Amino acid sequence: MTTSEHRTLTQTAAHPKSSAAVLALVWGCRTDAVMKKLVALFALSLVIAAPAFAQGAIEPLTIVSGAKTHTLKVEVADTPEEIAKGLMGRGSLAADQGMLFDMRTAPEGTALNMKGVTVNLDLLFVGPEGTVVAVAQNARAGSVRQLNPGLRSAAVIEIAAGQAAALGLKPGDKVRHKVFGNAG
After folding, report:
1. Other C-beta atoms within 10 Å of 104: how many?
2. CA–centroid distance for 31 within its chain
3. pTM score > 0.90 for this model?
4. Where are the beta strands (DSSP E) in the chain?
5. Span 58-180: which CATH code?
6. Rounded CA gap, 52 and 56, in Å?
7. Is 12 left (phi over 0), alpha (psi -120 to 50) or beta?
8. Domain ranges of the chain
9. What is the pLDDT of residues 73-101, one digit of tens each?
10. CA pair distance 143, 137, nearest whole angstrom
11. Are strands 155-160 and 97-102 parallel, antiparallel or unpaired?
12. Is the distance from CB of 73 to CB of 58 less than 8 angstroms?
């Protein structure tokens, strides 16, 4: 560090005008170098945090089917934007994962489609009390066909194709989640 740089840092430390100047003293480098480090740290934090913002929080959801109980990890889509995006662009969906679409505030007759979705899915249509009212198996990725059972659904659960049959899920099964007010 040159004498003039040291004098500048000393003067800045005596009258700090910015947090960058203080950090420059702590880190032992120039203010512009501190700013570059701060920008790099901020960019790194965005890269690390991006997956958390790319998907919603994961919540447990339980389906009681006869004597069997199945627990899934679901993302909840409860805003018009989240419902419209759904599982678009996802490369895969694990057998124990899914997405719960809270359709209680959606206009009556709202249907889902598979446009932009890259994996086949099973859909469970769930009534307001948490009872499965219909199951659509193996909905094809990319299809624009409207998926609507013709019954008012409070929610739709999307799971990996084949999972509804593998778990024996059917109309009449009970879904437990806070969306239905029966989690516990």
Report:
1. 13
2. 39
3. no
4. 58-65, 68-77, 97-102, 121-126, 132-139, 155-160, 174-176
5. 2.60.120.1140
6. 7
7. alpha
8. 3-54, 58-180
9. 999 998 888 988 888 888 888 999 999 99
10. 13
11. antiparallel
12. yes
